[in-house]
Amino acid sequence: MHLRDLSLKTKLLLTNALMVVIPICVLVAIGAVLLGGLRHAGTLQQQALELLWPEKGTNLSVPLALSSLRAAAERKQFKWSHVERDVHLLESAGVRVSIVKDGLLYLTDGADADDIRYAVMRACGARGSALTWNDAGLFFRYEGDRSGIVFMGAGAVPMMRHHDEMRISPPMRETVINAVFIFFIVITSAGIFLLGRYLARLLSAQILAPLAAIRDAAGAMQHGDFDHVLPPMGSDEVGATCRAFDAMRSDLRRARLREEQEEARRREFLIGVLHDIATPLTAVKGYASGLIDGIAATPEKQRAYAERIARAAATMEGLTTQLRSFLRTETGEVSLTWEVVEAQTWLNAFIDAHAADFRERGIELSMEEDREQTYIRIDRSAFARVLENLWENSGKYRRGERAHVCMSLSHEGDFLAIRCDDDGVGVREEERERLFDLFYRTDAARTHVADGSGLGLAIVRRMMTTFGGSVRAEESPMGGLRIVLLLPIRKKEDTHEEDTAGRG
Question: Which of 21, 222, 249, 295 is the most exposed place for a label (fewest CB within 10 A)?
Fold first, then answer.
């Protein structure tokens, strides 16, 4: 089994274990090295001291005081402050001290100068600097040639005091040091272990818990439940991952909801289309049967039946044309020829060319004049279908016998707003957001199923997107519906621009 095959929990446990074991091993190694070094250094130091000063215990300070007195004797000038501490130290160790220079300068309280001089002469000789220190005691004389001062001392200070033998023995001292070292290692290791375990549990909770939540949410999503919300997480990388996953879940939930809504609209649309087709087909079938069965016996009646059949066929043809246009728009199969035109001029010409035709359909077209020249980039044929869909939509949902449509222009930033106002039945505010959705019909449209399929405005939005613009619906001051087409404004010098190979 490879390391990559282990679970994340196992990897974390191994990592945390190593985080604990390695510091403990390093600590033990460093402690062992330090202990060995201290022992070695202590042994060397002790050996050196024993070579220089064989005495032990409190007597260890006596040689230092003797050295200081020897150095003071060699100085040219004598000062009591230089030797006071050393003299008192010797006296505390049991040494009687006398200092002579052209007479007696200092004598230990209760001592006899002659007794000190005779004891020193017996042990060290009559003249010169000398030092004798054995089991009989300590005797010294230091004569300064330049200063003329003489330090003498005598006392029962043995090389080894018997009470020093009562101190801790080296094996016992070694045992105590080892015990202290082991205790330190154990306590430190226990602290490291407990801290590592705490950090491991904390780290595992911060990583494994979010991952478990993501796993549960993914399992719920697999079974179609997109409402499984992840709990709040921290601001670290794991928390960011959880939030990204939850955002994806929300997006999928919205996408699924849109898909369900789209499917419902598609079913509604198909029902409407089938009804739209069935109605003229029923008319065609009925009038054709009348002609065949001889019900229409007179030429006038036969002509009336034939005209009704022709209108029903035209209705079906219009429906199929609209379906074909919509499908071509959705699949991007519309080939466009781009031109930059002046909006007011082009709209005036287009309305003049189609006003009579729409008047026959009961739709009165008008255009408000705008003195400012504004250029837009369009495909003439495609934009003509956009306007025709808008006008036909106004004609389908008029209040009376005739519908009035007014076109106007305005600027909205870098876009030209082409407004189409009518005096029809209008659309409720809560329905305007969905007015351009695929297969969507307002309540008013559902009462005129034979007049519309719900594709006209969806085609308008698709074409406006192709033009680089947008479309929205508002309430019209004329009492009906206002459709606002937004197109990017172009510069006048772009009028020479033409792309015949463009594809929408």
Answer: 222
Burial 321-356 (b: 16+ CB within 10 A, else e): ebeebbeebeeeebebebbbbebbebbeebbeebee
> Residue 369 carries which DSSP code?
-
Beta strand 104-107 pairing with 95-100 = antiparallel
pTM for this model (two decimals) = 0.44
* Model confidence pLDDT, tens digit, residues 270-300: 666 676 677 778 888 888 888 888 787 788 8
Residue 450: pLDDT over 80: no
Cα–Cα distances in Å, from 499 out to 89, 231, 337?
A: 114, 54, 6
Q: Where are the alpha helices (DSSP H) in 223-342?
A: 237-293, 299-331
> Closest Cα partner for 479 from 427, 436, 413?
427
Backbone angles phi, psi at 300, to 5 degrees: -65, -45
Start-to-end CA distance of the chain, whole Å, equals: 56
Which pLDDT score is estimated for 260?
82
Tokens 């076109």 — which residue? 407
Assess contact for 502 and 389: CB atoms under 8 A: no
